[in-house]
Specification:
globular; binds NADP nicotinamide-adenine-dinucleotide phosphate; TIM Barrel; single chain; 8-stranded parallel beta barrel
Length: 313
């Protein structure tokens, strides 16, 4: 039997909104969309209760099927789940926000969303094409809407009780500060890439000062090179503590006050990623002080174009 303490049950209170976010989350961005339902079912079975979705992932229906299946057994109640989904870049115009939100709820088969995020601060040409490009292959942005105009439309969804909190993703610290200064309802959550090679300490400090949950995507480095899970500091700690490098990376996130989203289609990895427990302070300090590699794997923050989503099916 795997030893674990209370770390994996950590829940961060939603300061600007209602509820609590389980720190341990499961993401639903899959290369092979046909694996969505079974992976989400495996995650529910392993104990995950926090799920991260997006209209851009084009599989909200398959996530909804898995969620409904477990809700219908009565083993899990809707209130125990924390469901996030995201507004895509082509829907930033205020009049497009509510219809996009309603469509996500319909596909996910839920009547409220725990946290609705603006997927990126970049507005794309409105329309049905999620990846609008000109004849040279350049993204067509939309200069007809500002982030605060989009945000006001999200605030209305909170006012109407249709989502319990709102937040931002793929945003820089500078842009976050600007939005926080003018938002009526402050962001509850900021979702960005973060792992031992991209700790984002400054952003974390700002978030903690302002009651914002920092939610890390790619907490294992998305399996890319240089591989966080092969980092000598991580493997050394893992060996010493009898854990896997993935468990060390995920425990480090929660222990420093960061929620995470990990993704896997492998039932054993899914279970492993849920079975985390606290690290000794020495290990926390080693990860902070002895790892000097710095790398961002996903350049979405620069363009709004997601680095991990293949462009064409
Ligand atoms: N806001 C955004 O722009 C944005 C961008 C990217 C991602 N996200 C969200 O964040 C979620 C997580 O991101 P991510 O997929 O990059 O996370 P990740 O967990 O860092 O990377 C997933 C990769 O790691 C492997 N893996 C998972 N557990 C493992 C383990 N215990 N040991 C070894 N390898 C393991 C998986 O392969 P196997 O399947 O073989 O296990 C997969 O290739 C996404 O699903 C999505 O919801 C958001």
């Amino acid at each position: 039997m795997t030893y674990h303490d209370a770390l994996r049950d950590t829940r961060f209170p939603i300061v600007h909104g209602t509820g609590e976010m389980p720190a341990v989350g499961f993401g639903t961005l899959f290369r092979d969309l046909s694996l969505t339902t079974q992976a989400v079912k495996a995650a529910l079975e392993a104990g995950f209760r926090h799920f991260d979705c997006a209209e851009r992932y084009r599989n909200e229906e398959s996530v909804g099927i898995a969620l409904q299946a477990v809700l219908q057994t009565g083993e899990v109640r809707r209130e125990e789940l924390f469901i996030t989904t995201k507004l895509w870049n082509t829907n930033h115009r205020p009049e497009r926000v509510e219809p996009a939100f309603a469509a996500s709820c319909r596909r996910l088969q839920v009547d409220y969303i725990d946290c609705y995020l603006v997927h990126t601060p970049f507005a794309f040409q409105p329309g049905d094409d999620q990846d609008p490009r000109d004849f040279q292959g350049h993204v067509i942005y939309d200069s007809g809407v500002t982030l605060i105009e989009t945000w006001r439309a999200l605030e209305r969804l909170v006012d109407e009780g249709r989502c319990r909190s709102i937040g931002l993703s793929d945003i820089s610290l500078e842009a976050l500060k600007e939005l926080v200064a003018v938002a009526r309802i402050k962001p509850a959550v900021v979702q960005v890439e973060s792992h031992p090679y991209l700790p984002e300490w400054e952003l974390l400090e700002f978030c903690q000062e302002h009651g914002i949950i920092l939610l890390a995507f790619a907490p294992l480095g998305h399996g890319m090179e240089p591989n966080v899970l092969e980092e000598p500091v991580m493997t050394g700690i893992a060996r010493r503590l009898g854990k896997t490098p993935a468990q060390v990376a995920l425990a480090w996130a929660v222990q420093r006050g960061v929620a995470f989203l990990t993704t896997s289609v492998s039932p054993s990895h899914i279970q492993e990623n849920f079975d985390i427990s606290s690290l000794p302070q020495r290990a926390m300090a080693e990860i902070r002080d002895d790892i000097t590699t710095r790398i961002r794997f996903n350049s979405v923050v620069e363009t709004g174009v997601p680095g991990f989503i293949p462009r064409k099916k």
